[in-house]
Amino acid sequence: MNTLEQLTTSQKHIYYAELAKLCTENRTNLFAKVIEQRTKQMTIVIENIYQSHNASAVLRTADCVGLQDVYVIENDNKYEVNPDVALGSSKWIDLHRYNKEANNTKQCLDKLKADGYKIVATLPSEKNVWLDDIDIHDKLAVVFGNELKGLSDIAIEEADIYMKIPMYGFTESFNISVSAAITMYQLTDRLRKSDVKWQMTEDEKINTLIKWAKQTIKYPDKVEQEILARIGITQ
After folding, report:
1. In terms of pLDDT, which residue wins out, 1 or 185?
2. Which tens digit of pLDDT belongs to each residue from 147-164?
């Protein structure tokens, strides 16, 4: 169990207030503005992407549209963040990596299902649901496959919904990062215009604010110990 999990919500607010004193006012004001636009109602899963710039572009878009979580499944291909493409976005989102099991895809999707997400597989089949018709009242985890083979059989079998994006040209599919960007922007835009309670919970918000502040300051682990001791919170 990490330190954050041992604290009550009120203790977390006290802790964050102390961390915020070590950040600039402009930075903490930005944190306060951005956190209100973050959501866990929807998340993106990228499976076995082998071109790092595509996966990194997905992270950047996720941050820009307000998604807090991105799941990366590394079955055959290890993902390395491309800093020139991601532009620091991996600091501000929660990147969940699945790369330690024989079947990383199933482990990841089982976890998401346990957390209440419906798994949406992106496929071009004629029988699939159009992106515009996806029900945003459900928690959604949209899964994108790799650049050459698409989604694995396991990802397809585990899916609750099969989705397709409208296309009007000769080419059969969008680039993975483009498909993900279209999907993220369209669904989050609909969420914000809906009656769905898409914002994060208060506990999720304060957990994220603490993470962001610790990303900003020097020697965060040492500072954490000093703050916790000063405000009388024992681990």
Report:
1. 185
2. 778 899 999 999 999 999
CA angle 199, 93, 231 (to 5 degrees): 80
The dihedral region occupied by 178, where left means phi > 0, alpha psi between -120 and 50, and beta the remainder, is alpha
Q: What is the number of other CB atoms lying within 10 angstroms of the CB of residue 203?
A: 12
- Alpha-carbon distance of 72 to 210, in angstroms, equals 23
The DSSP output letter for 17 is: H
Q: Where are the domains of the chain?
A: 1-20+200-230, 40-198
49 neighbors 147 (Cβ within 8 angstroms)? yes
Q: What is the mean pLDDT of residues 23-37?
A: 96
**Superfamily for the 40-198 domain:** SPOUT methyltransferase, trefoil knot domain (3.40.1280.10)
Q: Is 74 a residue whose pLDDT tops 60?
A: yes
Q: For the chain, first and last CA: distance in Å?
A: 10
**What would the two tokens of residue 92 be?**
């501000």
Choice between 80 and 32, residue whose per-residue pLDDT is larger: 32
Helix axes 25-35, 202-216, angle to 10 degrees: 150
Assigned token pair, 18: 């102390």
